[in-house]
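Tip: read the tokens left to right.
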């Protein structure tokens, strides 16, 4: 009896594993990527200006700390600046700044609401982990929905589930994905929104039901309240869905209502989006960028970023391989079959890429982060479709697996890292400013280079600091700033970019009687010098 019971239990476990093999593989892949994310997160040493904005806009009582009346020309300790980046005890569970600050800035509020929620778990502390853990959780969901999308693309193919897991995993640990996770901004959340809305539209093809329509409406609402560029992607999905359903004489009223309700709710919740999109500097800048003569060069620059980070350097080799296969198998192109679901991934992805490339104010990876994963999935799908024209299932599987494997290891070979958002090179200066360089500090401000938030984290470490504005560069004005300050052990001087550093240093040396001006570090928007004898 005991033997039979053991055999029965063993059989049940085997059946469970077989039945849920794909989900177990997906869970293992997500666990591995999560470990990778935590390891990369530990390497982050500093914050970009926009990450400082993420913290401040989620918690502070105004958009800019520089708008405080006492910000300039006043000596402060580190707590003054830390207040912008953290939640204090008397600010707990006050979510009003999330809405008010976004109203006065240029982004919708949903991401900041989530970040503020995670910041609540670490009051009175400046920590990267609230933002990084939020992104890690988001990326677990991204991997899940990317898997579901890949299942639609490879539906009916041999080992479709295994391919979907593999493609989902690799797309989630590319350099672009790693950058997105450790970059404390809304781009990981926007990536998730795009993955969800794509999956729901693929599902809508087979399941035009009330539940799917409700989820599409909710997803469109959250996406529009996360990042405005999401609307580029949704617009193409909307047009494609309308055209297909009208052409096939299928129901369409419910879908139009779902999108309309999402739009109305979005405007009701955050009506300031109209101002942001149409009249803010970012909105008007995006429109002018679309019609700029530099558009083609912008697209080329963004393709370069995609090649390096979204494909780990493999976009060009894979694309060339696809083109070569199509040429070699030209006589058999009738067998080049593309799943109709593919176009619901590829078309909005390409449209988003092109429009974002020409509309973005800067040529930076962050603007195309939300479609990097789907771009990768689409190109891998085209590779397998090209191979299947003549190659066997086994050969197709081997080449696809090899391509994914090479994509994973290429960064180790080329020694390419996530974009400069980890700031490993800033670890030493942070430690020095907190310890041996914790001296009276002056930030010589340039009004045309207002990027103080790039350096605010260092100022949270300083006991005595002064941001100088509208002060004449004279020995007398410097002596007036330093009156009653003990700087006998040295003075730390931050010189904001695009100024005459030599002239400023010489004037400070004369005013303080110091002989040496030792360059310590070049930051994003300033240079740091130690003045001493």
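Filled-in amino acids:
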């Amino acid at each position: 009896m005991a033997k039979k019971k053991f055999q029965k239990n063993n059989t049940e476990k085997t059946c469970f594993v077989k039945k849920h093999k794909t989900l177990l593989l997906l869970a293992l892949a997500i666990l591995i990527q999560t470990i990778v994310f935590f390891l990369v997160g530990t390497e982050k040493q500093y914050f970009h200006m926009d990450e400082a904005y993420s913290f401040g806009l989620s918690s502070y009582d105004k958009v800019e700390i520089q708008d405080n009346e006492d910000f300039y020309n006043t000596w402060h300790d580190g707590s003054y600046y830390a207040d912008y980046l953290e939640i204090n005890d008397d600010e707990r569970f006050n979510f009003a700044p999330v809405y008010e600050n976004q109203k006065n800035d240029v982004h919708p509020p949903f991401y900041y609401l989530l970040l503020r929620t995670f910041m609540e778990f670490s009051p009175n502390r400046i920590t990267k982990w609230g933002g990084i853990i939020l992104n890690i959780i988001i990326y677990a969901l991204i991997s899940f929905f990317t898997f579901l999308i890949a299942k639609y693309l490879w539906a009916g193919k041999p080992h479709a589930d295994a391919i979907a897991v593999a493609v989902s995993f690799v797309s989630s640990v590319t350099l672009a994905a790693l950058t997105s996770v450790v970059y404390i901004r809304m781009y990981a959340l926007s990536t998730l929104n795009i993955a969800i809305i794509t999956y729901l539209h693929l599902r809508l093809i087979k399941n035009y039901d009330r539940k799917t329509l409700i989820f599409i409406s909710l997803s469109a609402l959250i996406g529009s309240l996360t990042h405005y560029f999401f609307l580029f992607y949704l617009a193409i999905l909307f047009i494609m869905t309308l055209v297909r359903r009208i052409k096939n004489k299928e129901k369409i009223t419910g879908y139009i209502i779902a999108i309309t309700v999402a739009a109305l709710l979005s405007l009701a919740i955050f009506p300031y989006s109209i101002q942001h999109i149409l009249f803010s500097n970012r909105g008007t800048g995006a429109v002018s960028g679309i019609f700029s003569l530099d558009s083609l060069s912008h697209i080329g620059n963004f393709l370069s970023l995609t090649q390096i980070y979204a494909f780990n350097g493999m976009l060009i080799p894979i694309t060339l391989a696809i083109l070569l296969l199509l040429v070699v198998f030209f006589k058999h192109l009738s067998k080049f079959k593309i799943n109709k679901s593919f176009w619901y991934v590829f078309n909005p992805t390409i449209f988003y890429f092109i429009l974002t490339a020409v509309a973005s104010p800067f040529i930076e990876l962050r603007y195309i982060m939300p479609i990097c994963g789907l771009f990768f999935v689409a190109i891998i799908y085209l590779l397998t479709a090209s191979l299947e024209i003549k190659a066997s299932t086994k050969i197709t599987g081997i080449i696809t697996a090899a391509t994914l494997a090479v994509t994973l290891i290429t960064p180790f070979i080329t020694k390419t890292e996530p974009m400069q958002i980890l700031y490993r090179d800033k670890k030493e200066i942070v430690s020095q400013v907190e310890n041996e360089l914790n001296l009276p500090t002056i930030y010589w401000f340039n009004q045309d280079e207002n990027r103080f938030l790039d350096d605010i984290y260092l100022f949270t470490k300083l006991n005595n600091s002064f941001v100088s504005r509208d002060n004449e560069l004279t020995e007398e004005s410097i002596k007036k700033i330093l009156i009653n300050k003990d700087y006998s052990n040295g003075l730390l001087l931050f010189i904001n970019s695009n100024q005459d550093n030599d002239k400023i240093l010489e004037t400070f040396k004369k005013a303080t009687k110091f002989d040496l001006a030792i360059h310590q570090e070049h930051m994003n928007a300033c240079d740091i010098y130690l003045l001493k004898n």
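The chain is about 60% helix and 5% strand. Residues 129-153 form the longest helix (25 residues).
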